[in-house]
Amino acid sequence: MKKLLILVTLMVMGIGAYAQIESPVKWSYAAKKISNTEAVVFLKATIQDGWHIYSQNVKDGGPIKTSFTFLPSKEYGLVGKTSEPAPVTKYEDSFKMNVSYFEKSVIFQQKIKLKSPNASVVKGKLEYMTCNDRKCLPPEDLDFSVPLSK
Length: 150
Known about the structure:
By secondary structure, the protein is mainly beta. The protein has one helix at 2-18, and strands at 25-33, 38-47, 52-54, 67-70, 76-83, 88-92, 97-103, 105-114, 121-128, 130-131, 140-147. The strands form three sheets. Strands 1-2-8-5 form a four-stranded antiparallel beta sheet, with no helix packed on it. The protein has a four-stranded antiparallel beta sheet with strand order 6-7-3-10, with no helix packed on it. A hairpin with a 4-residue loop joins strand 6 (88-92) and strand 7. The chain starts with a helix and ends with a strand.
């Protein structure tokens, strides 16, 4: 009985190690005050080789586009939309359309207007989808909290 219990435990541990979730994208965040009334929030995706995430400007019928939702605050307000660099645009057979995406890394930027000198953090959520040439992973939602430098 003891040997059977050890065998089952080892099998469960082996399955758990094999079934680890893929995470080909790592996110990092920073902010920089550019004046007493404005700051820029930087949201950086570092993407493993062979994978990509999609632009914010993907047409309907395609993959899940990267999107950012900033929590409303009395301390700051958004200035315009979140900007991104020029993406790669190619036809993807899996979606039967041209799609725009980023490989290796991308930095999205959001300008904010500071309504209070005590503004200390910008919070929100982001959603993105990761694909490679063989498969796409389910869309992922992440909460973020970006401290404002003084």
